[in-house]
Amino acid sequence: MLAAAADPVGGASALVGVADMDMKQRSLDGLVAFLTCFFPHLTDWEAVRYLVLAEADPLVAARIVVDDRRTKCFRPGSAATNGALRLALKCATVAAKHPCPSELAGVWLSMCSSLDTLEKAVSLLNSPGDILHTLAKQTPYVPCPAPVGIGSSLIRPWELAARRSKHAATVTHQYSWSLRRVLLHTIHGFYLQALARMPGGDLRSRYHRSMLKAGHCYGPFDSVTNIIVNTIWYEATFPPLSQLDELDILGTLNLMRIEARSLYGLVSFLCTHDKGLNADQAIRILLDMDLDLAATKQCSGVQEEQEEAFRAAAIAAWHPRPDAQAGFLSSCRKPEVLLLLSDNGGQQQLSSQCVQQLAMLLSSAFNSTGISAQQKQPVAVCERAFNLSMSEGRKQRRDHKRISRKVKAALSRYEMQNSGHACYRLHVICGVNVSVSGRDWKRKTRFDDDYYHHIHANFLVTQDVGSVGSVPVLFFAELSNDDDGDKDSQLLCCPVDFPTPGAESYF
To answer: What residue stretches are annotated with the PIR2-like helical domain (predicted)?
Structure first.
C-alpha cells in the first residue's frame, strides 16, 4: 500500500502487469478447455503440446490432433462435429472467465455460419485501421445466439484452418496416453456389437460369464467375431461348475476390465510376433488397422509363431487358460466358422441354433489338439471373506434389479410416446453410471452410500419383427435415482449410434 501511494505510476504498471498475466492465463485455460472438450480423450498436457505445434491456433491444433490420430470419421460440417464445436467453444469461454460466455460463443458461431460476415472479419484482421471499432459495428447485425440448425455452414472455419495448418510443425512424439483411451473406446464399441449379436436368452443365462471372463477381442478374425468365438469356445470347453443366475445387466467395471485386458493382449501379440516393435509402434498399428489383427502382417505366419504370440497375448490379458486359448486360436478352423456366421445374416443377431453349432464346432476343433479341458476347482477362501463376498453380491443384485426395473419402465414409456404400442424387448443393459448429478450431502441412501440424483444407462433392445431377424438397437437413458418411478418420465430415453472405431465419443 505504501509503495503504491509513493509511486502511483509504478503501482499502476504493476497492476497492468498482473492483469496482463491474468489475461494470458485465462486465454490458455480457454484454449486447453476447447481442445479437451472437443477431444474428450485428450489430457491437459497433451492439449498444451498440440497448441504449441499450432502456435496457439485452436482449430489448427484440432486438425493436427485429427491427423495424428488418423481419425477416419472426422467430417467438418457434419452434425456431430458442429455439435462438438459448439460445446467446445462454450466450455472455452467459460474456462476463460469471459463475462458473457454464451453470447460470445453465439456471436462467433453466427459469424462463421455466414460466409460474407466471416470473410469480412478475416479481411479486417489482415488490414490496418481501427479493427475493434469496425468489428463492433459488424456484430450487432449478427444474430445471437447462433441458430440451432447451423449445419454445413460451419465448414468454412475448418477450411481456413486447413490452409494455416500447412505451416504448422509436425508431431514429434509417437505415443500419448489419450491414444490408449481412444483404443479402449473403440474396443468398447466392439463389445457392444458382440453383445448385440449374441442371442438374448443365451447371453443372459450362460454367456455373460464367459464373455466377461475370457471373451477377448484378439484372434484370427475381426474384433467382434473374435469376442463371439472366444466367448462361445470358453463356455463350451470350460463350463461353470454350478448353475448361473440369469442376468439382464452387465457391470460397467466388469466390461471395462475385459476391454483393458483385450488391449494388453493385442499389444503383446504384436510385440511378441515382431520383436522389432515396441509398445508405441504396436499401438499405432492397432490404431491404423482399427484393432483388426487379421488385417496386419503379424497375423500371418507358421502355426508355431502364431501360438507363441497368442500365448503372450493370453498371459498379458489374464486369460484363465492361456495355453489352451493359444492352442485353440492358432489352430482355429477359420473357413467353417466364417461360413457359419455369414449364413446367419451378417450383422443380425445370431440364433440359439447357430450358437450351438458354433459351440460344437469350436469344442471339437479344440479337443482335436489334445489339450486337456478339465475345469479347475475353486480355491477355498476363509469364512470372513466368503461372507463379505456374499453380502456384496446381494447388494449388487438388489441394485441390478432396481436399475433393470427403471430401464424397462423408461423403454415402455418411450414405446408409448413414439409408436403407441410395445415393439421393443430388452436385450441386455451394457453400461451403468449411478453417480450422476451430485453428490448430495444432505441425503443418504438406506445403505449409507453417497446420494446422486440421476443414473445414466446404455442398453440394447431388439424389435419384434416376426420371423425376420432383427438388428439390436443401442439406447441411452437418464433415470432418476429415487425409488419413485413416476419421476423417470421427465428424463431422457433415446436410441444412439454405436461407437465408431478410432473416433472420439461423439463422432
So the answer is: 21-64, 186-295
Single out the residue of 95, 80, 101 nearest to residue 33, CA to CA: 95
Query: 243 φ, ψ to 5°?
Result: -70, 135
Cβ atoms 481, 453 nearer than 8 A: yes
Instruction: Report whether pLDDT(25) > 70.
Output: yes
Report the distance separating Cα 459 and Cα 426, nearest Å: 8
**Quick check: bond before 145 cis, omega within 30?**
yes
- What are the structural domain ranges in the chain? 22-165, 180-367, 395-496
pTM value is 0.81
Percentage helix, strand, coil for the chain under 3-state DSSP, each rounded to 5 = 60, 10, 30
Query: In angstroms, rounded to a whole number, what is the distance separating the alpha carbons of residues 302 and 275?
Result: 16
CA distance 36 to 364: 50
pLDDT in tens, 399-439: 888 899 999 999 988 888 877 666 788 999 998 988 887 77
Enter the DSSP assignment of 1: -
**Tens-place pLDDT, residues 200-257:** 889 998 899 999 999 999 998 999 999 999 999 999 999 887 777 788 898 889 999 9
Q: Tens of pLDDT along 266-282?
A: 999 999 988 888 888 88
Buried b / exposed e along 378-389 (16+ C-beta atoms within 10 A) = eeeeeeeeeeee
Helix runs in 126-219, H state only: 131-138, 155-165, 177-197, 200-202, 208-214
Cell triple for 442:
444432505
Give residue 166's pLDDT band: very low, low, confident or very high (50, 70, 90). confident
Residue with cell string 469376442: 227
**Which residue did the predictor score with more confidence, 139 or 379?**
379
What is the DSSP-derived secondary structure letter of residue 492? -
* pLDDT, tens digit, 9 for 90 and up, residues 316-335: 999 999 999 999 998 887 78
Residue 427 has, within 13 A of its CA and on its CB side, a CA count of 28
Give the pLDDT confidence of 172-181 residue by residue, as tens digits. Answer: 655 567 788 8
Cis before residue 439, ω within 30 degrees of 0? yes
CA distances to 73, 231, 497, 505 from 290, in Å: 12, 21, 18, 15
Q: Which residues contact 288 (CB under 8 A, 6 or more apart)?
A: 70
Helix (H) or strand (E) holding 228: helix 223-237
Written as nine digits, the cell of 242 is 454350478
- As beta bridge partners, residue 462 has 425
